[in-house]
């Protein structure tokens, strides 16, 4: 590791932008930020922050700005840390392991996934067997639009090694401590801590995400309206209970009182979670990491999950519709003239053909 | 009953229009049709039919046309039969018993509900304790728009007394036979039969409706795309099995092979059922008669229905959103600042206040 570590932040939404700013703040490291669709805008005008921690900042630039990971790797690598803050949509056109690939240098890079969901480390282990992959759970409240970031809830990051204690690299503790040192700013501007059981934290966060994200996306309304219409006993809590059951089958015990906390977290706020916003905007949703992976675990462990199965099936239908409308797949009606028992297989075969 | 019976048809969608035409065809009775929003159009130009049975007909008029049930009752009543073909949405602004009220003459009128769902007779018995209420199950394929009816699937109606044999009026058989006589046209132009166990027929039809209507509405795609995305084992069949279980708890035995029939009924057709169309159009959906009432029966009989509970909760959220967007309810965010456990009660109280 160089004396001035190099950190690549991928994803310049609310979370990615504040992460880059937090890292840049004390000038103890070199921050490279990947900006894709708004690259020209940010290159010309920088990012504007309205931040609850850092105040109003205009024209902010990281040390290095790139429009692609391969450009960044060529111009500013190798990176000590790669922080991935994009959405994780393995059923979408780009897989996360392909997003980060060019920025990974075995023996040098530690990968930090600041993303939702369960099982997201597995594709990374398969693609990069030698590197340390850290979980990042970020409790921030932030949003990005057209070069402007609204940062309303403090940057509060927990990191931990996805691998169990016996499977961790000998350098795991060191790379985590080093990242905490370079990330933590003075005067409580942000908060970072090491989490020794990140899988438990992820399952716990999933109790909220699986229930509220799926419900809001399918109903098309914010969390408060969901509760006005149907309370929490009809669907939200039954969905939460199923996540708690799956977690338990993995040895993760979640106290049932977290359900109360989560059901009241947004009291009176009329907040729409990310999956609800994605559906409204016609964007792909994180249905595999938030529902598909936990349900695969449920099947493997013999846990029954009729509520989550129902939500997941509906979300797969919505996702197919979104992919079709975005031109990422096409459904030729004449391919589906025969027996509907075969439709899913036909679809998967055609998709596989196309994606290779 | 007069020698030339008087029949009132309420609802001039695809089903109502073809019903009125079928009844009018042999001129054995006097047909009055209620047309609400398109009254001026139909009054001026009549209805145009593209009918698989009756051919292409332009400028068709029933014997009497009215824009309201009260006008029809005053001008053309009393009616021997009132055939109600509107959607049945007890949580909407107009209840079906209020729609038909002015056309009901006790001792004269038989009411025929050509509508989907379970338990729809109960509100009618409460409002009109003395009359015979018949179930109509219509297997027609038809649609209406701007005065034009496309009639693609033959008019095939089963009628039967909602009341169990021991509770039927002594005139029940006679009024059903008489209706069959006046409804049946020659040369197989239509088909009508008496169904001695209409509750069983309704539960059976509900196996299809509860599963496919709810799924299509929530996913926002047609039935075929639902199956392409997620097959039928993930949601459609589990939902169907729960309806079969509820029916069984009511003494109605449905053979499981109807699930296969229903899952293949629309093979290759890319058909969107009514609830899916309603959601796309931002219209209220028949969620109470298709899901709410069967689930009330499930609760009363101790049947567990996690899949249908999930679908119903989601649909109630969508319905609330639709009501709000249509201005039928309003949600003042400041009323929902407190504890979310109270939200449903607050909403119901406010709604009750407004509806009286």
Q: Any overview of this molecule?
A:
- Chain A is of the alpha/beta class and 356 residues long.
- Chain A has helices at 14-24, 39-45, 69-76, 96-100, 121-127, 172-183, 198-219, 223-230, 236-249, 257-264, 274-281, 287-301, 306-325, 343-355, and strands at 6-10, 30-34, 47-51, 55-60, 64-66, 81-84, 110-114, 132-138, 141-145, 148-153, 156-161, 191-194.
- Chain A has an 8-stranded mixed beta sheet, with helices on both faces. A 4-stranded mixed beta sheet of chain A has the order 4-3-10-9, covered by helices on one side.
- In chain A, a hairpin with a 2-residue loop joins strand 9 and strand 10.
- In chain A, helix 7 (198-219) packs parallel to helix 11, helix 9 packs across helix 12 and helix 12 (287-301) runs antiparallel to helix 13 (306-325).
- In chain A, 49% of the residues are buried.
- The interface between A and B is large, with 50 and 50 residues.
Give a brief rundown of this model.
By secondary structure, the first copy, chain A, is α/β, with parallel strands linked by helices. In chain A, about 45% of the residues lie in helices and about 15% in strands. Chain A starts with 5 loop residues before the first strand and ends with a helix.
């Amino acid at each position: 590791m160089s004396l001035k570590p190099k950190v690549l932040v991928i994803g310049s939404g609310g979370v990615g932008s504040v992460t880059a700013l937090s890292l840049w703040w004390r000038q103890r490291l070199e921050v490279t930020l990947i900006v894709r669709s708004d690259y020209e805008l940010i290159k010309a005008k920088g990012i504007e922050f309205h931040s609850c921690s850092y105040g109003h900042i205009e024209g902010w630039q990281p040390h290095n700005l790139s429009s692609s990971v391969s450009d960044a790797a060529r111009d500013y690598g190798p990176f000590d840390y790669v922080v991935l803050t994009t959405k994780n949509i393995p059923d979408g056109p780009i897989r996360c392991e392909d997003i980060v690939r060019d920025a990974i240098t075995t023996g040098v890079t530690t990968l930090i996934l600041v993303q939702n969901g369960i099982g997201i480390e597995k594709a990374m282990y398969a693609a990069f067997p030698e590197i340390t992959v850290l979980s990042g759970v970020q409790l921030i409240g932030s949003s990005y639009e057209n070069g402007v970031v609204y940062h309303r809830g403090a940057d509060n990051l927990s990191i931990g090694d996805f691998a169990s204690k016996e499977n961790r690299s000998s350098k795991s503790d060191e790379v985590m401590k080093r990242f905490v040192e370079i990330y933590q700013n003075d005067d409580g501007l942000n908060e970072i801590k090491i989490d020794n059981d990140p899988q438990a934290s992820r399952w716990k966060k999933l109790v909220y995400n699986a229930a509220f994200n799926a419900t809001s996306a399918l109903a098309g309304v914010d969390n408060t309206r969901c509760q006005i219409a149907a309370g929490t006993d009809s669907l939200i809590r039954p969905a939460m209970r199923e996540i708690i059951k799956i977690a338990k089958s993995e040895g993760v015990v979640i106290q049932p009182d977290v359900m109360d906390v989560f059901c009241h977290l947004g009291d009176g706020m009329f907040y729409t979670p990310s999956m609800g916003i994605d559906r409204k905007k016609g964007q792909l949703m994180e249905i595999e990491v938030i529902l598909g992976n936990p349900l695969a675990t449920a099947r493997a462990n013999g846990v029954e999950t009729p509520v989550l199965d129902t939500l997941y099936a509906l979300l797969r239908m919505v996702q197919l519709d979104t992919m079709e409308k975005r031109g990422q797949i096409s459904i030729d009606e004449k391919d589906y003239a025969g027996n509907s028992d075969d439709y899913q297989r036909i679809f998967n075969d055609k998709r596989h053909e196309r994606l290779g």
